[in-house]
């Protein structure tokens, strides 16, 4: 089977308005999957099966890191470094040959790889990657993958930008100098954004934030991943991170790089807590995108760590094999959002809460609205009635539809041509209360 390769339309770049991505003149809606340990845990055959599954579900970029620790080995026991020393790279060893194979498989399938050269915990002050060995490692990485057509570089890795800003700046600058046309981002610590430290950096092409994985009532858990309240902790209101970064100058695309994962324990640390499930990952996705995000990054607890042995305890309450988790509903439902956005000129749309004739609502009652010249989308998580002004669309022939975010089915409601305002009550159904209102030509 031959798969479409988006870079054949042109290099992946930021659109002229600074809000979205395109390959050449073709809009690119970022739909990512989180596969942090992909290079470490899977065989080549398993990798091909996983990547094909994601490609056929509509994903177009896979996030993973080369090294989670200096002693990193792959599933065949091949080490990336000699004795964990970044100055002694096992250049011709099986680890890097396997990495080459994974990137090649992704390229054959038409998938971008959002790659972190090393996980952020290794770059904290006094970490194993430092000023003495950074250039040796970066020389190797940038030379080896200089010509790869399907790589987006990502600095950081679940770490604050101020723990070693000089080194992060150096990494980003080197990535951009090596290939000025290749996109570079930064994956930050929980409930923070790359914009807090690097928004004006010339090497940073887009902002990633991490909204997950806590509930509204889990602001402070006394855990290692608590963060400073002064930075803004918005609970489950992921859209607020988008709103904050959307307003910054210069305009840059913004994405949720780590929302709450499907089947991860709420708050991560207490395994007696409930799990985030499909309805929750849908809510994060629609709230983010309708707030102006340039796409979305999905995650599943079992997939991000490629949990493969039920007799051993997985991280954060993992309870399903990754090979089962790739078939779970939340991951399969992301394609409905992607198809919806691609059905219109989303790159010229905007958050449009001003079209609401009622309060947007708080927490779960929040209604998000995204609109363009000839379309309007509105999302309700709780099934609230949606009241809208349609004055902007006078003179346009428009129909209204309900989109079921579980099945992707769109059903016609009525013709709204000439209506100045309308009220829409979502239909009841058995498998959830969330609904998407679609108004289009």
Automatic annotation (TrEMBL):
Residues in Apiosidase-like catalytic domain copies: 16-347
Coiled-coil stretches: none
InterPro entries registered for this protein in UniProt: Apiosidase-like_cat_dom, Collagen-bd_put, GH
Pfam families noted in UniProt: Apiosidase, Collagen_bind_2
Regions crossing the membrane: none
Residue stretches making up the Putative collagen-binding domain: 351-439
Superkingdom assignment: Bacteria
PANTHER family xref list: ENDOGLUCANASE (PTHR37836:SF3), LMO1036 PROTEIN (PTHR37836)
Protein name: DUF4038 domain-containing protein
Organism: Eisenbergiella massiliensis
């Amino acid at each position: 089977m031959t798969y479409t390769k988006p870079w054949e339309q042109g290099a992946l770049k930021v659109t002229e308005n600074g809000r979205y991505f395109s390959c050449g003149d073709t809009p690119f809606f970022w739909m990512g999957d989180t596969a942090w340990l992909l290079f470490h845990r899977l065989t080549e055959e398993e990798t091909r099966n996983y990547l094909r599954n994601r490609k056929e579900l509509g994903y177009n970029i896979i996030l993973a890191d080369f090294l989670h620790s200096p002693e990193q080995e792959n599933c065949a026991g091949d080490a990336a470094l000699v004795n964990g020393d970044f100055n002694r790279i096992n250049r011709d060893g099986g680890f890097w040959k396997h990495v080459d194979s994974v990137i090649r498989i992704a390229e054959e399938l038409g998938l971008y790889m959002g790659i972190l050269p090393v996980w952020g915990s290794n770059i904290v002050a006094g970490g194993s990657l430092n000023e003495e060995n950074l250039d040796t490692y970066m020389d190797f990485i940038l030379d080896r993958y200089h010509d790869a057509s399907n790589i987006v570089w990502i600095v950081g890795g679940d770490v604050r930008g101020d723990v070693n800003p000089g080194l992060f700046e150096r990494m980003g600058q080197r990535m951009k100098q090596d290939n000025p046309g290749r996109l570079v981002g930064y994956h930050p610590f929980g409930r923070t954004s790359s914009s807090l430290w690097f928004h004006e950096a010339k090497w940073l092409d887009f902002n990633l934030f991490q909204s997950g994985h806590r509930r509204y009532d889990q602001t402070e858990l006394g855990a290692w991943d608590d963060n400073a309240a002064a930075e803004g902790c918005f609970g489950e209101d992921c859209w607020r991170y988008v709103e904050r970064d959307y307003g910054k100058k210069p305009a840059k695309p913004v994405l949720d790089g780590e929302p709450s994962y499907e089947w991860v324990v709420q708050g991560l640390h207490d395994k007696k807590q409930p799990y985030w499930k499909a309805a929750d990952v849908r809510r994060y996705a629609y709230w983010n995108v309708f707030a102006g995000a340039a796409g979305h990054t999905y995650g599943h607890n079992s997939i991000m760590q490629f949990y493969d042995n039920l007799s051993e305890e997985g991280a954060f309450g993992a309870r399903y094999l990754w090979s089962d988790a790739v078939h779970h509903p939340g991951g399969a439902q992301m394609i409905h959002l992607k198809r919806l956005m691609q059905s219109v000129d989303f790159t010229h749309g905007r958050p449009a809460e001003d079209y609401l004739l009622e309060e947007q609502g708080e927490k779960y009652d929040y209604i998000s609205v995204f609109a363009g010249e000839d379309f309007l989308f509105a999302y309700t998580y709780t099934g609230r009635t949606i009241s809208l002004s349609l004055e902007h669309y006078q003179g346009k022939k428009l129909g209204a539809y309900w989109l079921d975010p579980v099945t992707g089915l769109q059903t016609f409601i009525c013709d709204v041509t000439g209506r100045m305002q309308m009220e829409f009550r979502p239909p009841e159904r058995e498998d959830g209360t969330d609904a998407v209102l679609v108004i289009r030509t």
